[in-house]
Design brief:
The chain has three helices and no strands. By secondary structure, the chain is an all-alpha fold. The protein has a domain of 74 residues. It is rod-shaped.
């Protein structure tokens, strides 16, 4: 996040030691660490939420494009195995007579 090297950290520590004093420096370091941790967690939470929203929008766009290019009704009609086609009145053997009625065949009947 910040580009702070070891030399900068040592300089900040020496200045803090001179300004605050050795008695209050540990308490100040702990408080600063807690605030930095809270800021990082808040930043990561916002970043994760934005990432989730972006992924959700991308998924919606993909689904919208897919629905526009090949609707489910066309897939069912082209394939015919899912029903919805001309021969959706099939019986147990799959025979349909001239009137569109499904015939019930016996075990020995040819298909």
């Amino acid at each position: 996040m910040f580009d702070i090297g070891a030399l900068e950290l040592i300089l900040i520590g020496v200045v803090a030691l001179l300004v605050v004093g050795p008695e209050r420096l540990p308490k100040l370091a702990r408080t600063a660490g807690l605030w930095v941790g809270r800021a990082r967690r808040a930043f990561m939470s916002v970043k994760d939420e934005i990432d989730r929203e972006i992924k959700a929008e991308e998924l919606k766009e993909i689904l919208r494009k897919q629905a526009a290019s090949n609707p489910l009704e066309q897939i069912i009609e082209e394939d015919g195995s899912l029903g919805g086609g001309k021969d959706s009145k099939r019986g147990t053997t799959g025979h349909v007579d001239a009137h569109g009625e499904a015939s019930r065949g016996q075990a020995g009947d040819p298909p």
